[in-house]
Design brief:
About 30% of the residues lie in helices and about 20% in strands. By secondary structure, the chain is α/β, with parallel strands linked by helices.
């Protein structure tokens, strides 16, 4: 499988409180055009009670027809302990690109059960920066079970440049099972957009025949 280095499907913007102030949607598009990217997804962090979503979507809708780049409108939603994703229900449909990721530390049982439910969620498109917590391990059989579940539910796994994830052991097994991957910078600043230099070894694992 060849990964498309002209795609970046996990980019944040300045609608959150920890990205660079100049990471505006307009600047993201300009930088992506300068990099000759073909497709991007702007996937701002969201919560069920986020109050800025209407303005955000309006701005995305303004720019979608004004750039030659194919632009996906999306959100990165936190996987909650019960397996639900922290995203307003109005955006859980085919119009929006949803990255589901862990941002809270759980024990192994909680992590496993929540991940399974997120993978089975028909509104989730991709699992972002997947990796177990540092205080527990996932064995090869458990990874194989996850791989089968990902394929059965037609989900994609993100190769994340910010956190350098998933681990190589996951990637090798996922690849054997035909899991599909794509690249995400998880950019929180302009210069991080489309920069996959930190994950060249992960990309090589996927692309090796």
């Amino acid at each position: 499988m060849m990964l498309n280095l002209k795609e970046d499907l996990h980019i944040h913007c300045n609608y959150n409180d920890h990205s660079s102030k100049d990471l505006t949607i307009a600047n993201i598009i300009n930088k992506s055009e300068d990099l000759d990217l073909e497709r991007i997804a702007i996937t701002e962090h969201v919560r069920k009670n986020s109050e800025w979503t209407k303005k955000y979507i309006e701005e995305l809708n303004y720019y979608v027809p004004r750039t030659r780049i194919k632009m996906l409108k999306g959100f990165e939603a936190k996987i909650l302990v019960n397996g639900e994703i922290d995203c307003p229900a109005e955006f859980l449909n085919d119009e929006y690109f949803i990255v589901a990721s862990f941002h809270t530390k759980y024990n192994k049982e909680q992590w496993s059960e929540a991940l399974i439910k997120a993978i089975e969620n028909p509104n989730v498109d991709v699992i972002g920066h997947l990796a177990p917590e540092f205080d527990f391990k996932v064995d090869d059989n458990e990874i194989r079970n996850l791989a089968e579940l990902v394929v059965a539910n037609k989900k994609k796994i993100e190769i994340n440049s910010k956190y350098i994830r998933p681990p190589k052991g996951f990637l090798k097994i996922f690849k054997e099972y035909g899991v599909e991957f794509h690249l995400g910078s998880d950019a929180h600043s302009i210069n991080e957009i489309g920069d996959f230099n930190r994950i060249k070894d992960l990309i090589n694992i996927i692309e090796q025949k």
